[in-house]
Amino acid sequence: MDTITGGQLVAQALHAQGVDVIFTLSGGHITPIYQYLENGPIRLFDTRHEQSAVFMAEAWGKMTRTPGVAMVTAGPGFTNAMTGVASARFSNTPLVLIAGSVGLDCREKLDLQDMPQEAVIAPMVKKTLVCHKTARIPEYVDLAFRTAAGGRPGPVYLEFPVDVLGAAVPVDQAKAYRTRVESQPVDLAKVEAVLAMIATAQKPVVIAGTGVWQARAEAGLTAFVEAAGLPVFTSLSARGAIADTHPLCFEGALALRPGAAFGAYVSADLVLLIGTRISLYYIFGDIFNPAAKIVQVDIQPEEIGRNRCVDLAVVSDAGAFLGACSESIRQRGLARTLNARFAPWIAEVKAFHDQGKATAQADWQSDKVPIHPLRLAREIDDFMNRDADVVVADGGDTTTWMGMTRTLRHPGRYLDYGLFGSLAVGLPYANAAKLRYPDSRVLLLTGDGSVGFNFMEFETAIRKNLPIVVVINNDLGWGMIRHSQEIKLGHAIETGTFIGRVDYHKLVDALGGAGFFVDRPEQIRPALEAAFATGKTACVNVMTDPTVVSPASMALANIGAYKA
After folding, report:
1. In Å, how far from its chain's centre is CA 344?
2. 244, 246, 416, 479: which sits with the fewest CB atoms below 10 Å from its CB?
3. 52 with 460: CB under 8 angstroms?
C-alpha cells in the first residue's frame, strides 16, 4: 500500500492553497517539511531571524490580501516569531504561522526546545491548531487558511509535532481538503439608514480603514464618495485606496498629518467610520466633535462602539456596504443633490487642508544643517514619484515624519508598523515588497535605532539580489523616547536614548552593498539617484537634527498610557 509522510502532506496542502513563498528560518523540527519543499514550486525564502520571517509574511499578507506564510522551528524559533504575530493581529493581516514542536512521545521529558507553544500564542491569534494525527494534516492546513482570511483577517497558529511530520500513513487515509469561503455580508436596511443620516447632515466626513483594503473596495470607496460628494480620509492599509490627489480625498486620517483632518473632525456633525477602529489614532474618539453622530461599519460586531458610543452600528463587509450605498444613491437619483448640498463643506475642508499644509512648508523646505527630518521626508516623497514606487517606514519619529509627508496615489504601496508600533519591521517589509514587486523601486526610511534590530537583513537582501534602498534618518538615538522624556521629565535619560554616530553606510558597503553618507539637505536627492543607480542593496545614512520634536513625541508624553 502506498504511504505518504506528514511532511509531504504539509507541502502538498500548502501547494493546494496556492502558496507562492514561505518565509522561514530552518530548524530540526521543520526539516521533514523542508525536504518536500526543496526544489518544488513553493519558494523557501530564508531570513537571518525568525522575527524577520514573520514580518515578511505579514507584509506579504498586507500587500496580497491573502495569508502570508511563515515557518519556524520549535522553542526559540517559535518565541522569536511572537512580535510579528502580534503585529499581524493588530493590523488585521491574514497570516499563517507554521511551527514545528517536540514530538508527542517526548513531551514533558526535557527534550530539546520543548515548551507549551500553543498556550503561549493563543491570546495573540484568531485560532490555534495543533495536529496530532498525520492523516488530518490537509484538514488542518485548510482550516488554518480559511480562518486567517475569513471575516476580519488575522494570524492563525498551526503546529506540527515532529513525529507527526515524520510518520507515514496510507495515502487513502489522508483526505484532501480545499474549501473556499467568500462572503460579503451587507445590512441593506442599515444602508438606507446611513443615507438618511447623510441627507440631513451638514458636515459629514468619511474615514476609510484597513477593512476597505481587505475587502478590495478601492473602486467602491471612490464611487461612493463621488456619488455622495463627501470628504474622505484614509487610514493604515487603506492609504491610497482613493488617491490623495483626488479632489474629495484629504489624505491621511491621522490628525497630526499637516492638512484637514483636525479641522474636519472637530467641525463634523456626522462621522462615517468604514472598516476602521476607534483607537489612539483618534484620541479614542475624543477628537471628533462631541455632538457629531457616529456611524461605524465593520465586519466584526464586537469591534463596533469601542471607546465611543455610536449612533448607528452596521455589521457589513466594507466593500458590499459601499457598493449598496452607491447603488441606492444611483437608483434614487440623489448624486446631484448630495454633491450640491456638500459643496460648501468641501470648500471649508479644502481651506482646512491648505492651512494645515502651510504650517509645515517651512520644515519641508528647510535648508538647515543638521537636516530637518521633514525635509528628508519631502525629498523622498518627491523622488519616489512613480506609480509603482513602494515606500516603507520604520522607527518612532521617523515613521511620523514619513506619515506626515507621503503622498499616496495607489494602494498597497506604503507600509509601516501601524497601531502595534513595533520597530524592526522596516528591512523585512522592504525585502518583502521588492520580492512582491521586483520591477518597482522600493525605498525604506528608517530610524537609526530601528535599523539595528534586524540589521543582518541587509545581508539577506544582498544575498537574495533584492536591490532596495534604505535611507537612515540618523538623529543619534531613540528620538521619540528622548523627546517624550524631555517633555515629561525636563531632561532625557541618556542611557537608553542616546546611540551616537554610527557609520551604517560603511557596514552595508562591507557586506557587499553600496553606502552613501549625507549631512547637507542639497545632497539628499543626488544620493537617492546614485543609490538606485547602483542596482545594489544600498544604504543612505543621513544625519538629521536630533533636537527636532515630532507631534508623535508630544502625543507619547501626553496621550494614552504614557500620560500618567
Report:
1. 35
2. 246
3. yes
